[in-house]
Amino acid sequence: MPKKPLNKRQDHPIIKLMCFLLALFVLFFMGYHLIGFINDPVILVNPIMHTSEETLNIDGYFIRNETVLPRAPGVIQLHVDEGTRVGTGQLLASLYERIEDLEHTARIHALDARLEMLRNIRDNADTVADASALDQLIFEQLSVLAHAVDTGATYELYGESQDLRRLMFLREHTFEDAAVINVMITQVEDELRELQALQRAAESTITNTLPPAFFSAYVDGYEEILYPGMRQNITVAMLRDLSNLRREVDSERVLGKLVPEFHWYFAAIMPTEQAQRLERDVTIRFSQGLWATIEMWRDRVGSDEDGMSVVVFRSRENMAGTIRARRQSAEIIFRTHRGLRIPKNALHLNEYGETGVFELVAGIARWNPVEIIYSSESYYLLEFDRVDPRALRDSDELIIGAGLYDGKRVG
Known about the structure:
Layout: H1 13-39, E1 43-45, E2 48-63, E3 67-70, E4 75-78, E5 85-86, E6 91-96, H2 99-123, H3 131-150, H4 157-173, H5 178-202, E7 204-207, E8 213-216, H6 236-240, H7 242-245, E9 254-260, E10 264-271, H8 272-275, E11 281-286, E12 292-301, E13 308-315, H9 319-322, E14 327-343, E15 348-349, E16 355-361, E17 364-369, E18 372-375, E19 379-382, E20 398-400
Antiparallel strand pairs: 1-20, 2-10, 2-14, 3-9, 4-6, 5-8, 6-7, 8-9, 10-13, 11-12, 11-14, 12-13, 14-19, 15-16, 16-17, 18-19
Helix pairs in contact: 2-4, 2-5, 3-4
């Protein structure tokens, strides 16, 4: 088969030259814009709604009016929870000489619960029991207990397990003969009477003889050192050396402490210049396990000691939640600002000395004046005007770059 003759127009020098010039123009165009982008890059950012705080980190001690409750050696069973408000004459704890006596108390509680269930079965003997319904309740309770284990909700385990035991006991004995149930009730009552007699003989009780107060089992040795009256004379040197003044606590001789319903205080060391900035009302955010933000009053600012001062704050808030706290790290929040956050290089200064930003609108740089309300090392926080339609929004695109002016075509 004869070869197809080549199209001579494809090898024409003019066509080759035109293709070369076209390729050269494309490369020049791309290179020009690439060099322009490198020399004057256009970066777009969006403002972000942000809250900034002016804060100061401090470290200090809680001061309270605290009364330590002594006790005799022995095994203690507390009857009040940590941070509970207790009244005058209220039972605080039971004291036993031996651990076996405390075990009697646990057995008494178990027998009380068993007796209640047996009496319930006896009193409802005429009611037709549904075994399948009880089985379903047991299955559902098992599911609840398994879910508590899977999710790590350990605080729920005791209550849920007790409910399961009650249901299984009912399932086991609901269909017993009434005479058998009465015998079981008599046996439980006899054992209860015997154990209660042993408990009364071995138990001594501790009640609150003071006015109503909050109870804490935590005694740290600062109770007699840090009291409200000493706050007027505390110095920077005293506060720094406080840990060396702490007294040893014999846990075998102490039940806990009572804190009356009055003000508590927090004393900290801070620069005198910062201390003088404090308003009467102060917001303090505590950490290290307390994790609470509390509104407090400035109670006292101490004298200047080499640029540092002791500042004492007071409050009546959250007494139950702060009762265990002693030495704490915290932040003083001087001011809180909320506005639009932008990088520092997104802010520009025009020929009139006004601050503003350049927004990208349909490929054009548009000048928009702004007001700075807060400045940090890496960003500015701008006033956010919800009313003015021309004001900056978090949906706007801001141009970061040099050589910008109002009306410049970008990109």
